[in-house]
Amino acid sequence: MSVLAIDTATEACSVALASEGRVWTRFEVAPREHARLCLPMIESVLAESGTHREDIEWIAFGRGPGAFTGVRVATGIAHGLALGLGVGLYPVSTLAALALRGIREEGADTLLCCLDARMGEVYWGVYRRDDVHQRDDKGQPRLLGEEQVLAPEAVSAPGVKLATALGVGRGWSAYSEDLRRALGDLPGSVQADRLPMAVDLLSIAEAQAASGKSPQSPEEAQPVYLRDRVVKEKPR
Questions:
Q1: Which SS3 state, helix, strand or coil, does residue 217 take?
Q2: CA–CA separation, 91 and 74 (whole Å)
Q3: What is the C-alpha separation between 212 and 224, in angstroms, rounded?
Q4: d(CA 149, CA 54)
């Protein structure tokens, strides 16, 4: 089985391909270069792995939250490939992928994921490892509450012990003091340079597939723009 993941929702452009038990990845921090880089990255992992496009069984993509243009790039490429190949899609949260990176790299159990949303706001999500007793790379992030876009001074993490939590994502470097004041302190550990990676989107989608969740059609698999949702939900 060969499966593909694409993420361009942040400053990073990232691709991952899994085939026959092996994974090939590409990752580059290149703001505003996603449209130029993404397709060559896909061709590169296909060539290196000896995989043909027709071998791909499904595609995962970063559905946001993130930069509007970046999210559209991954969505458009994933939709185009899925339609051409006749395969389904797994839209995956970029905050969930960021959380899984924290689990994979740091072994964290509780993760405060924060990305800079610009305009004085952050994308915020609190996640917990689905099995805190599991110390291998199969743990998956579980969202506590909901993902939000809000001012950094308005974030909250009810019930979370900050001393044992991991703050992950570039929002922590952009708004460190605001976040500290909002939470009362900083997490015990902060990885403020982290961005989502397609390899973690791939792992989340593989876990969904293994649990019996079917991929979506391109019509169903849509991006998520938290800022648009907030605007629509505000009372007149």
A1: coil
A2: 10
A3: 23
A4: 38
Listed in order, the ranges of the chain carrying CATH 3.30.420.40 are 2-94+196-233, 95-191
Quick one: what percent of the chain has pLDDT higher than 90?
90
Superfamily covering domain 2-94+196-233: ATPase, nucleotide binding domain (3.30.420.40)
Query: Which tokens go with 218?
Result: 């391109």
Whole-structure pTM value: 0.92
Instruction: State pLDDT tens for residues 45-54.
Output: 999 999 999 9
The CA distance from 141 to 98, in Å, is 9
Burial class (CB in 10 A: 0-12, 13-18, 19+), 3: buried
Which of 3, 123, 134, 130 lies closest to 56, judged by CA? 3
pLDDT for res 228: 64
Q: Of the CATH numbers 3.30.420.40, 3.40.50.1100, 3.30.70.100, 3.60.15.10, which one belongs to the domain with range 95-191?
A: 3.30.420.40
What stretches of 30-172 adopt beta strand conformation (E)? 56-62, 88-92, 110-118, 121-129, 141-150, 166-168
The arithmetic mean of pLDDT across residues 105-122, rounded, is 96
- Long-range own/partner contacts, residues 129-137 (CB < 8 A, 24 or more apart): 129/103, 135/107, 137/103, 137/104, 137/203
